[in-house]
Amino acid sequence: MSSAEDILLFDLPGSKEPRTTRKLHIRRLYDILQLCILRQDFVRARKAWAILVRCKEVHWKALWKTGVLLLGGVDDEPDHEQENGRRIDYLYAMMRLQKSHDRESVLQELILRLIKSGQHRKALDELELYLPSPPYEDNPILHIYAGLLCLYLSQGQQDSDIQYDDRQAELNASMLRDAQVFFERARVLDPENEFASSWIERIPSLSQQQSNDRRDTPDSDEEGETITTDNSGQRTKRIRREETSHSVRLG
Description:
Elements: H1 21-38, H2 42-52, H3 64-70, H4 80-97, H5 103-116, H6 120-130, H7 140-153, H8 166-189, H9 194-216, E1 224-229, E2 235-240
Helix pairs in contact: 1-2, 3-4, 4-5, 5-6, 6-7, 7-8, 8-9
């Protein structure tokens, strides 16, 4: 039995009751790690982590969430964008190293980090790569993430200086259809998911709004026309055109 001095505060994943001095020291070090994280003392926490991951008794892959946290400080620090990039690289490595049944939670964290860094297209590409195969295909949360990313990307061009053409409009309509498919799959997997159901009901109106915007966009805006006669006596019509640009916005 452990004495009063050997009271341990946190459970180390995969470890049993320490029966040797070495294992007791490892558990104490893990307690120090967790306490430093709670106090946001990341300098000491990283030092404790660096020792723990070198111990064969520690299943560091099971502690991947701790690793993600310690790769950076708090998210409101000035360099949090750079730290987020390091976390993304770490999560990609975890996707290769983890067992298949542990990759779902890693993928969810990876998608959130990619979104946080503004890499929406890349986040959707990752989901489209994994969602057709098990066990990801049965995860409603991943399908909802994919649907939301399609909705975001369906907004298309946001720059008023870029002309909104038919190709972009068709691409945005396709993204809305994909979003509908992802949300419907999420509802099949989780019939009580009200979030997916609400978007399924709303997407048809967004598609109709997009279609109306395309019909209301003229090929040319005839502000005025001037009839002139050139030297050969032939009448020439000059029409001043104004380029218009439109972007589809979610209501």
